[in-house]
Give the backbone structure.
Amino acid sequence: MNVLFVSPLLRPAKEIYLGYHHGIGYLSSVLKNRGHATHLYSAYEVRPGEIRTVLRNKAIDAVAVTSTSAEFALAKAVAREILSYGPLPLFFGGIHATLAPEEVMAIDGVTGLCRGEGEEGFAQVVDSLEKGKIEIKAPGFWMRDGEEWIKNPAGPPVPLTELPFPDRELFDYSTLLKHHSEIIGAEFLGSRGCPFSCTYCSLPVLQDLYAPLSFCRRRPVNDLIDEILHVCSNYTVKMVGLHDDVFTLDSQWLASFCDEYRIRIRKPFWCNTRTGCISREDVRILRAAGCVRVHMAVESGSPFIRDKVLNRRISDEEIVETFGFLKGAGIRTLAFNMIGLPFETEETIQQTIALNRKIRPDRIHLTMFRPFPGTALHTLCKEQGWIKSNKDYSYYEEEPSMEQPQISRESLIHYFHNFIRMVYE
């Protein structure tokens, strides 16, 4: 079977990083291991002639479209163009299909959609298509059956040791590495899932989807190290990025990883963590292994918003202390922040600026809050009547997607443009 993965892209801009897509990479590897051929089509807009050329020249048998909420409008338009070419089996996956499946179901001609992880379910679907009769009970897949939909529950989370390394040859990976070679570098995942339940995040939905089983699991150290070594042996890698949501969650695993990494890889790397999930000893171990940068979320300087709105029970003092011992160890820091959050005021934004002045991160990543479908905060914002547009904005746009009575659109845009200057002035 010739399977085409479709990945709609946000238009490139200074603020937008378009990196490697692990989801497509894993799916492609699984299918290749079963004897199927995979292809990739990425675009910033609908290009009918280009799409039809790909479908014809590659003799595509099935299509898999993935998207976030911000990319869904383009994904839908590309899917409709593909379906106008002929009656191809077409499936949707990605986080938007998981969070808002009813929006995918409304697209005429879509064969099915995947909620959650798709490696096992999609492999079953493609295998069955090759045999001539589609498997309508594949785990995690909702399949169209005439006018009805068969809604299969998710299967158990796939053991990460059973997955092949994600496919990088499907992408123009050498070019991807060149774009951000010394800032992002080659990206890897050592785990899936997160034990926390931040209300703006999609991961609590995945936790519920797989309950009572745990969605959180971690790869053995040597498995991850072997993948990093494999990529470093085949590409020019200057920096390694560990993209796990909380890379330092397990101190024993972290110590073992750092020991192996220092011996076998010996390249600078960065990782994500969370206040309360990294100790001074963890920092010492990271630094000795070659960690040069750690990313952490501040999100808001308002204790009320962090605690009551975001469900992030972390104090100002803990945040200041953690950034302090990271910087004291010589590790650069990046702080994620949002403005325009529910119940945001000019005072709470000023609290966020003040907290960032205390921690003095080496870099700030600022976004305008978006209440993405399926999240707890989307439900809250919808109930409050604050969502005034059906458009799903990306994280990178300055335009507020909500209207709250206590703060104006003009004030939010003003702070968005001047936030970093206000922190460092």
Summary: The two ends are 58 Å apart (CA to CA).
